[in-house]
Structure formats: C-alpha cells, structure tokens
Amino acid sequence: MNIAVIGAGAVGQLTASFLAESGVSVTLVARRLGQVKELNAKNLTRVNVDGTKTVQKVASTTKLEELPQQDLIVIAVKYVQLQELYEQLSSLSSTVPLLFMQNGLAHFEEALRLPQKNIAFCSVSFGAQMIDQSTVQHRGIGPCKIAIERGDSDVFNKLLQLRNSLYPIELVANAEQMLFEKAVFNCLINPLTAILQVKNGELVTNKQAFLLMQTIYQELTDAFKGIEQTIPFFKVINLCEKTASNTSSMLADRMQGRKSEIDTIVGVILEKALASGHNLPTLRTLYHQVLAIEESGERR
Ligand SMILES: NC(=O)C1=CN([C@@H]2O[C@H](COP(=O)(O)OP(=O)(O)OC[C@H]3O[C@@H](n4cnc5c(N)ncnc54)[C@H](OP(=O)(O)O)[C@@H]3O)[C@@H](O)[C@H]2O)C=CC1
Ligand SMILES: CC(C)(CO)C(=O)C(=O)O
Where a domain ends, among 141, 173, 205? Predict the structure, then answer.
C-alpha cells in the first residue's frame, strides 16, 4: 500500500513512522526542502513512550503533485495551514481517498467541498512532539479514530489490519460527532496549557489549573446536554495523565510564535453554545486570552 502523509510535523511524523513499521510504503510531504533533505539523509526516528527508538525509512518530497497515484493521502497539517493546501488537493485525482487529521471542527465542511469521492476524518488522542526535523517523540498512547464521511471503507479497512498496539486505529460512525467530542476535550486542555505554559499532566496535579478545568467542564456540560455520558470527567483526567509529558499542540504553537487553532477548536464550540443561549464565561475568557497572546506577537 502507498500512503502519502502531507505535513512532516508531530502528528505526520508519528503516523508515518507507525505506517512504515507496518509495511506501508510511506512518502512524507514537507514544504521545506531542508527538511526533505534531512529526512532522506537520516531516516525518520520515533522515540517511543518507553524511551526506545525506532528508525524507519520513508521517502520524502516537497512535490505532492509529482507523486504517483496513492492508495491514501493523509493530511496532517494544522487547520490554519489547510487553507493554502485546499487548492492543491482539489487538483489531485478525484479517486484518491483523503484522510484529515486536524483537531477542531471548522475543516469539516470545508474538506467536503473538495472533489474527491472518498473523504474521512480522524481524531487522535495521542501525544506527539517534534524533537527535530526527522525525529518525533511519542508522548502518550491513544486511539486514532477514523470516521468515513463520504465514499467507501476499503482503504480504511486495510488500515485497521495494520493496527499496532502503540497506535490503535478504530473506525467510528459519525465524523461530526467524533470531531465535536474531541473538540470538547481540546477545549478543556489546550487553552489552559497554552496560557499557563504547562504540560498536559499539570492540569491534574496543579490544584488551581484543575479547578479551572473543572469549571470549564461544568460550563460545557450545562451547554451541551448529555455530553457527560460520552465524556465523563474522568476521561478528561485520563487523557491529561496519558499525555502528561506532552506539550499540547496549542502550547507548541505558542512556543513557536505561530497562530493557534483556537478558532476551529474553542471558537466553534463557543458559537455552538451561544446558539442555545450559553455564554461559557470561563472558556470565553481563555479564548480571548489566547487571541491576546497571539496579537501581542510574543517571540516573533
Ligand atoms: N501534536 C499533538 O500531540 C497532537 C496534534 N493534534 C492535531 O494534529 C494536527 C497537526 O498538528 P501537529 O502535527 O502537532 O502540528 P505541527 O506543526 O507539528 O505539524 C504540521 C506540519 O505541517 C507542515 N505543513 C504546513 N503546511 C504544509 C504544506 N502546505 N505542505 C506540506 N507540509 C505542510 C508544517 O511544516 P513547517 O514546519 O514548514 O511549518 C509542519 O511540519 C493539528 O490539527 C493538531 O491540533 C491532535 C492530537 C495530538
Ligand atoms: C490529545 C492532545 C490533548 C494531546 O496533547 C491534543 O489533542 C493536542 O495536543 O492537541
């Protein structure tokens, strides 16, 4: 099977590494020639959760359009970076299946405007952090849930067969619901970690951070009736603990002075809550704090 992974960042490298380990012929599509050279020269190293290292040979290129037809294209760039990719994706064959790996909800409708017949979304609950251009650290094992929104399930069933206990893959039924539920987890973890500049685990061990997380949970469960059934608070604690040493993707954005995914994660959830008259004051405050940090241009 040939799979191209667009975006050689934390999630792209981790996914590429596990796919290559399962025998898939993987091409990582990066946008910087320097990174492609480094990946080709050094191969791709994964630092596992137990500290061991796994090195995989993957191909790397900047030229997506020059690749032969792939069995699957995985899109592992951030939401903000998707905007400049859509045009390129729309010029690819309409028969190539696409799998979107972004957190948040805003890309759902956008991706479905693409001409491809087979489109799926993914929600991942592992931790991943880039160490350098060709090394990724796996910081917490968690499921990779895939929901097919359009087209058939052939290629995704093949992915299920590749399952590795360190990178468990499962198929779920409803893409929008899956993305919504993941966005709720991210609302509880990402803005707090980014503002406080703490790793995920500290949201549980720091009493004040924990209190804030509980307050936001209360706001979310008041606004979205019944979500405490699918997302009981202990699952939020579990996710923080499993990814305790991870720098959340939003904190990673802050550390690198990049625009975060605050709008596609928190912004969309705030809008949905407001539609039923819920203002979520604590979460809204965090939303504006993250935007204020970005506007201040720190570290740029
Ligand atoms: N990291 C984590 O633990 C988790 C992340 N996620 C989600 O996964 C998604 C990806 O996040 P993450 O991997 O952390 O982000 P990263 O910033 O680490 O990776 C994104 C990568 O995409 C590359 N890129 C951007 N535009 C293009 C393009 N046009 N062509 C090729 N490559 C491109 C970037 O390159 P460059 O370096 O040149 O900018 C970067 O290497 C996000 O939606 C995030 O919220 C979900 C769960 C966990
Ligand atoms: C799973 C988690 C919380 C891992 O940090 C994540 O989704 C992120 O960082 O965006």
Answer: 173
Q: What size, in residues, is the chain?
A: 300
Q: Point out the domain boundary residue: 173, 190, 218.
A: 173
Q: How confident is the model at residue 298 (pLDDT cuts 50, 70, 90)?
A: confident
What is the distance in A from the centroid of ligand 1 to the CA of 83?
13
HSE (CB half, 13 Å, CA atoms) of 140? Answer: 24
Domain-located, residue 300: no
Please state the domain count of the chain. Answer: 2
Q: What is the mean pLDDT of residues 247-253?
A: 97
Percentage above 70 pLDDT, the chain? 99
Ligand 2 geometric centre to CA of 94 (Å): 31
Question: What is the pTM for the complete model shown?
Answer: 0.97
From 182, 199, 207, 225, active-site residue: 182
Q: Which atom of ligand 1 is nearest to the CA of 82?
A: 26
Domain range for residue 215? 179-295
Sign for the CA dihedral angle at 266, 272, 273, 279 comes to positive
